[in-house]
């Protein structure tokens, strides 16, 4: 068995240091919904995701933890019920996973 090398190649470094694979929400949604179809999710689930993403009306690709906290506060101030807020957060969580 050979000695393990401690250095990464240029291709490996490019993969490790890449922070975002997509630049726009449209491309991210395309990949997300393709993955959903590969996982054979029900059409109702796909409709649920689309409705929740449309209701948020913010750019998800560049969202940070601070943005999500502000989104929650804005939804609370606008009078949304806790279950609605949690439902939207569940959709966001599945998008980022």
Brief sketch in words of this structure:
With 97 residues, this protein is mostly helical. It has helices spanning 10-17, 25-38, 43-56, 65-77, 82-96.
What does this protein structure show overall?
- By secondary structure, the protein is mainly α.
- Helix content is 66%, strand content 0%.
- It is built from 5 helices and no strands.
- It has helices at residues 10-17, 25-38, 43-56, 65-77, 82-96.
- The longest helix is centred in the last third of the chain and has 15 residues, at 82-96.
- It is extended, with a radius of gyration of 18 Å.
- The N and C termini lie far apart (37 Å).
Largest sheet data: none
Q: How many beta strands in the DSSP annotation?
A: 0
Query: Stretches where pLDDT falls below 50 for ≥5 residues?
Result: none
- Proportion in β-strands: under 5%
Sheet/helix structural class: mainly alpha
| Mean pLDDT over the full residue set | 86
Give the end-to-end Cα distance, rounded to a whole number of Å.
37 Å
What share of residues is helical?
Answer: 55-70%
Total helical elements: 5
What coarse outline follows from CA principal-axis ratios? extended
Order of helices and strands: HHHHH
| Radius of gyration, in angstroms, nearest whole number | 18 Å
Key features of this structure:
single chain; 97 residues; mainly alpha; 5 helices; 66% helix
Topology:
Blueprint: H1 10-17, H2 25-38, H3 43-56, H4 65-77, H5 82-96
